[in-house]
Amino acid sequence: MVEEEGFRRYIAHIILWIGIAIVAFPVYLAFVASTQDNAVIANGQMSLLPGGHFFQTYYQTIFIGTSGSTREPVGNMMLNSLVMALLIALGKIAVSIISAYAIVYFRFPFRMALFWLIFITLMLPVEVRIYPTYKIVADLHMLDSYAGLSLPLIASATATLLFRQFFMTVPDELLEASRIDGAGPFRFFWDTLLPLSRTNMAALFVILFILGWNQYLWPLLITTRDDMQTIQIGIRKMITTTDALTEWPIVMATAVLAMLPPVFVVVAMQKLFVRGLVETEK
Amino acid sequence: MQKQAIFQSKLLPYALVAPQLAIVLIFFYWPALQAMIQSFLLQDAFGLSTSFVWFENYIELFKEPAYFEAILRTFFFSFAIAVSSLSFALLLAVMADKPLRGSMLYRTLLIWPYAVAPPVVGVLWIFMLHPSLGVLSRYLRALGIDWNPLLDGDQAAALIILAAAWKQISYNFLFFLAGLQSIPRSVIEAAAIDGARPMRRFWTVIFPLLSPTIFFLLVVNIVYAFFDTFGIIDTMTRGGPGKSTETLVYKVYTDGLLGGNLGSSAAQSVILMIMVIVLTGIQFRFVERKVTY
Amino acid sequence: MANVTLRSVRKTYPGGFEAIKGVDVDVGDGQFCVLVGPSGCGKSTLLRMVAGLETVTGGEIDIGGRVVNGVEPADRDIAMVFQNYALYPHMSVYNNMAYGLRNRGMAEAEIKTRVEEAARVLELSAMLERKPRQLSGGQRQRVAMGRAIVRQPKVFLFDEPLSNLDAKLRIAMRVEIRKLQRRLNTTSIYVTHDQLEAMTLADILVVMNGGQVEQIGNPLDIYEKPATTFVASFIGAPPMNLVSTRPEEIRLQLAGSNAADAGILGIRPEDFVITDETPDGGIALALTVEAIERVGAETFVYGSREQEDQRVAATPGELPPGEVIVRIPGTQAPAIGARIRVAAVRAKLHLFSGDGRKRIEA
Fold first, then answer.
1. Which ipTM was obtained for this model?
2. Where do the domains of chain C lie?
3. Domains along chain A?
4. Fewer CB within 10 A of the end CB, N or C, for chain C?
5. pTM for the whole thing?
6. What is the assigned CATH class of domain B64-289?
7. Neighbours of B (≥3 Cβ pairs closer than 8 A)?
8. pLDDT digits over A123-138, tens only?
9. What is the C-alpha to C-alpha distance for residues B12 and A99, in angstroms, rounded to an integer?
């Protein structure tokens, strides 16, 4: 429109850049801090520009760890986070897609009851049932295990709902044509449905991976061994100690590293990410 | 609800649903049930015997002024976080919705914070606003503010609200952008031709048509403020100073793990469960009634 | 009431695409101007530039003697009816129509009078409290018109308002729009891709193609004397037959006229008669009947000529028509496969230069 020319445009650009600055500033600061010397930081004299300690700090962070309460190298913790996030994302997708398949494409007693049973899990995040879940995991001897880390988080229904919605939009003709071609339930699923679901699966994967990577309270409770900690716990533990002992560059480097994989996933798979967010919230 | 074309197997569907069902039963319903049962129990100081006390835990809870304070505090935080985050995100989305050059770039640059985990958010912000070495603290002190969130309860609350709102900006921005883009351009053009300037267009046409999105985001933000802020609080203030940043979910944690009062903690969990169910229920019902134009 | 003048109007998009390549149009006060052309010709873009919804890269747009290039849509005193109606979904019919008046600060009492009057004219009085989603397509269209009428603007703009209606409704609404416009005597600019709509509605017809004006004028003038082969085949249905003048058969018949310079000969299907005689100075063709279409009041005969490689397209780059079309009144028609002879009088011949861009008077 005519009025969108001129200074209104500039204002829009300016506001957006202010927004970007606000959003990016804390992260930028963290990066700067991770390249500076701890003494300088502790004095409150840190400048706003990166310092020269980049390689040294990051090397120490990834491979050696702090001398504080976590003696675990961050590299290890990232591995734990990675395994957990992957297990959660992939596990949830796998378990949900076959559930949704059953609910949509078969008719059996208690079908709707089972669906509602699964659906209700949408409502309650893990924080609400935290202690009993802990007790059960402990009883099953799954503390400090990858299984224990991921299984309880696979329990909610978002993915099932998404797949169900998607399957409902797949034309019946496809199934009928498959059956005429002699395909049974497995063939149909594997040859037809699965390829069609690819984009949905990818979008879900992005969201679930981030969810899994960013988990905090649950891993905090069920890991007792240092070497099973995820990176989110690591960060937390690093600043528990009194300020005098906090090695800020390492803490900040850890923060930066903790952000890298999920941010990378979001940016690289932006379209899928946006689609995944919008679809799962419907 | 059911497709017309289906398979005839009788056993296969059960086998397919079984894995998810098993996980859901073991890790969701069983613990939820346990939480409810636990809320009716009271353990003695040594954990040696447990007695069934009916609703005593709940009554104790409601007699506790700290609990009501926690409820009020949680709601206050939620609204503060929701309102500040939503307003700023809406502003950004409206700006980004214009046909500007590089709008794709703007979108990318504004959505990545979604990926930042709550504890990391906490670490970033406590570093920025740390009383002694925080970069922003310097400027605050220069403005004459005696900034020490580790001692001042109100400042600690402000810190949590700021950090939590910051994290939610990109999520809200995304949904607002999607909502704005679903409004047909021709309706906005018609309003322009009908004599409405940009501001008037926004309040009389765009905002009403955006209201389903706004409501949806409001509920989501509130639920987020209830639970996902745990990581932020735990890394920044740990509920202090003096309980000024202890939200309901954090209280469940401290009373249970640190205080050892499992019964009360379980009762709080159950109450939280009910609150969330009510909130999500409201959201679903409203979304059902949401009209598509 | 006002006239609308476009002077050398151009529009180039930021990427470099030139959508409007220099257009001059003069619409007098109270006149009904129709912009017609195929998809992508720029007619909607031009209309939107008059509305202020698109910016002008070059030239001037003048409404009522005032240059409006930089003026916001809200201040141009125009009203527009959109193709998909663009009604405010969250407002009642009454409020949809009242919105524009409220924006101008009109008193509620007067708004009420105007809206109710317009509703009466458009037969919407029973629906004032309903929301758009409760209305049918035709009703929504009338609300869109009502919204435009109550404003009593200087200019009405219509962007293919009838395209989303079914055929019968379209014809009825077409007539209503014309009657309404005559009554209100408001200058109107109307965009459509349907040449029939264009012919029946326009006082001034502007035929556009590829961002340029092919011809401006009275619809019947354009029908009788198309300026280019594009206009010739766009206006009038079935389209004009276009053949190259190179073959001996044609050239001989055209000898002794300006036909020597012409490259293309056009004859409308309705100007052919099936006869063995050849009128003086006219043209005759031998055809083999390939297909017959009977529509009740008339019949269309599709015939092929021997030299098929002499067919010509209306616009360079397009596929030429397959056959020569002949229109016969009534239902009597030759059999398929029959060999017939058709002829047209000199006065009904249209001659164009070889590139189709210039009309040559015989």
1. 0.80
2. 4-224, 237-360
3. 74-280 (1.10.3720.10)
4. N
5. 0.81
6. mainly alpha
7. A, C
8. 777 777 777 888 888 8
9. 11
